[in-house]
Specification:
By secondary structure, this protein is mainly α. The chain has 3 domains: about 190 residues, no CATH class; about 260 residues, no CATH class; about 150 residues, no CATH class. It contains 21 helices and 8 strands. The strands form 3 sheets. The chain has a 3-stranded antiparallel β-sheet. The chain has a 3-stranded mixed β-sheet with strand order 3-4-7. A hairpin with a 4-residue loop joins β5 and β6. α8 runs antiparallel to α10. The longest helix has about 40 residues. It is elongated.
């Protein structure tokens, strides 16, 4: 009978349980997505170029486990708030506490297991779909990547089983030791206002000091090496918590006492935030950290996406050199978005390549100079291509491979060229408008060149920016892919966390807004107050997360050639637009739940 009553109660509150299940499923899915990479050592070693990647992912796993734990604690608290009143009624109707304790234990465990299984399945699907999309859009090939990862499934199942088993025991203990009155009135307890004290100010100062230490540690990564990560992880997480628990609560308290609070419903909004901000402290801390991780990962990913073409362009002004023409190569060349195609007659004797001087004077050779910030292509005449010069090195690199070892370039007259007893082997250089956009066709041309040489030369042995582009992709493509992958995963997680926390309190908030409605408050003022309240809850972690990212990017200075801040506006704008989308969705759902649809008469 008790199980039947429990099922009927759950059915009547299906919307609340849908919010609960959705949050837990997303939590399990994101945890699996991260572990699918973190536990795949072959993927990390084969695609990520810096040696401490495994250590970084280990610390990341610990941080994500803490974040997920906090998230599940909130979800479990939400579940108990849903059920306490019902269980209080069951006890009043004669239900035995022991049987009710067993019921809440099984219910908590069942909800956890169902959501975990669905979450893992969703995580496998998201991992496969997102990885395919990113590989296609970014143009990178990742080796050893598997959407289905047995180790990740095992880690996810063990973690969530342990957490939900402990949660079930805690819920059972609470039920058995709470009075009936507290069970019936648990969801109507008053929130405690912010208390202003010296210790509260001291906590705020401590938070700022801890965050400053974390920022310093990330900036001193070349000195601290691996120690920078745990120092930053601990101090920034603790500092962020202290900041929310003290500084932001004091700020809202001060604003609630200001003249601004007496305009419109500002006083009501500040009171809402003042009473609720303490309950949101842990969640806002989690969201701030996730915001920083997500934005930082996407920023780093886009940084490497931008860095790869820059690295390749430093090597040569030409994308590819064609040493043996074929019908297929000529056909493929017509498909390129060409900026220049030049053929120089060439004869090779020993390790010397002879060219016709007039051809280089008519169509000067281009040399790439500059750095990652800006690559400049300048034309050089034959007499400027001196032995040992940068120009000669780039010309030699375009033609050297395992079959042809070129040591120097000589420029002679056409008459002298014709007298050299060696077959003519033309050098055709191709320059496109974008090596990344033309990469698929360039790959086909390179493959055809390999075929023309009987498979005895590889792409890496060919000259030009495209082979360097492919090498850079192998070195940094893994970081680029992982950055985007984890960034989007963490964005989903943080939005889910905040949406869940806000929507889980909607039932309790309905009474407040219905009261305002009965007092004759216009609906547009109620909606304006809601927009501001939720805007603050989204805005605070967003602002703090951005600050964390700006300092945190210094951690990647050694592996991004000091260019971690270049082009920062693009990922920030994209991310903030996505974040704004989550805010609008949350606002829409919340208003549907709490704003009275009928105007009450006072």
């Amino acid at each position: 009978m008790l199980f039947k009553l429990a099922f009927v109660s759950m059915r009547d509150r299906w919307r609340d349980y849908l919010v609960l299940f959705s949050g837990l499923i997303i939590s399990a899915a994101i945890f699996y997505m991260f572990e699918a990479i973190a536990t795949n050592q072959a993927l990390i070693k084969g695609n990520i170029s810096f040696g401490v990647a495994s250590v970084v992912f280990q610390f990341g796993s610990v941080l994500l486990a803490i974040i997920t734990l906090i998230y599940i604690v909130y979800a479990d608290s939400f579940l108990m708030n849903l059920r306490e009143h019902d269980y209080g009624l069951f006890i009043m109707l004669g239900g035995k506490r022991f049987r009710l304790g067993l019921l809440i234990f099984l219910e908590t465990l069942l909800i956890g297991m169902i959501s975990t299984i669905i979450g893992i399945l969703a995580g496998i699907g998201l991992t496969g779909g997102l990885s395919s999309l990113l590989m296609k859009q970014l143009g990178v090939q990742i080796t050893h990547f598997q959407a289905f990862n047995g180790t990740a499934i095992l880690v996810t199942v063990i973690f969530f089983v342990v957490i939900f088993f402990l949660a079930a025991l805690i819920n059972q203990y609470k039920l058995l030791h709470k009075t009936v009155l507290k069970l019936l009135k648990g969801d109507t307890e008053a929130d405690q206002p912010v208390k202003v004290s010296f210790w509260r100010y001291l906590e705020g100062v401590l938070g700022l000091i801890l965050i400053a230490i974390g920022y310093w540690a990330m900036g001193a990564v070349e000195t601290l090496v691996l120690n920078a990560i745990p120092i930053a992880l601990v101090t920034i997480v603790l500092g962020t918590y202290c900041l929310y628990h003290a500084f932001f609560q004091l700020l809202i308290h001060r604003l609630s006492k200001s003249k601004w609070a007496y305009k419109g419903l500002n006083g009501f909004t500040f009171s809402q935030l003042s009473f609720r901000i303490r309950d949101y402290t842990k969640m806002l801390t989690v969201v701030s950290i996730l915001f920083a991780l997500a934005l930082g990962a996407i920023t780093v990913g886009m940084g490497y996406h931008r860095l790869i073409p820059s690295i390749s362009q430093q090597n040569s002004a030409y994308d590819l050199a064609v040493l043996k023409q074929s019908a297929r190569t000529q056909s493929l060349t017509k498909q390129l978005d060409l900026k220049q195609q030049t053929t120089y007659q060439r004869k090779v004797v020993g390790t010397t390549a002879y060219f016709i001087k007039d051809e280089f004077e008519k169509t000067p050779f281009r040399v790439a100079t500059g750095n990652l910030d800006r690559t400049v292509y300048r034309q050089v005449s034959p007499h400027q291509i001196k032995p040992g010069s940068r120009a000669e090195m780039q010309l030699i690199m375009l033609q050297s491979n395992d079959l042809t070892r070129i040591g120097k370039a000589e420029f002679v007259s056409r008459t002298a060229f014709n007298k050299i007893k060696a077959p003519i082997s033309p050098l055709t250089v191709l320059r496109t408008n974008s090596v990344s956009k033309n990469a698929p066709v360039l790959k086909k041309i390179a493959d055809d060149q390999t075929k023309q040489f009987g498979g005895k030369i590889t792409l890496q042995q060919m000259g030009g920016a495209y082979p360097a582009y492919q090498v850079a992709n192998l070195m940094f493509g893994g970081l680029e892919f992982v950055g985007f992958f984890l960034g989007l995963a963490f964005l989903t997680m943080l939005a889910s966390c905040l949406m869940f926390k806000i929507l889980s309190g909607a039932r309790a908030d309905q009474r407040r807004y219905h009261m305002l409605n009965r007092l004759g408050t216009r609906q547009n003022l109620i909606k304006k107050s809601i927009r501001r309240e939720i805007g603050v809850l989204f805005g605070l972690p967003g602002i703090l997360g951005i600050i964390h990212v700006l300092f945190g990017l210094r951690l990647f200075a050694p592996v991004m050639a000091g260019k971690q801040y270049a082009g920062l506006e693009t990922p920030f704008i994209i991310f903030l637009l996505l974040y704004l989308g989550y805010y609008l969705i949350t606002l829409f759902i919340y208003e549907k739940l709490v704003v009275p649809t009928v105007r009450m008469q006072s």
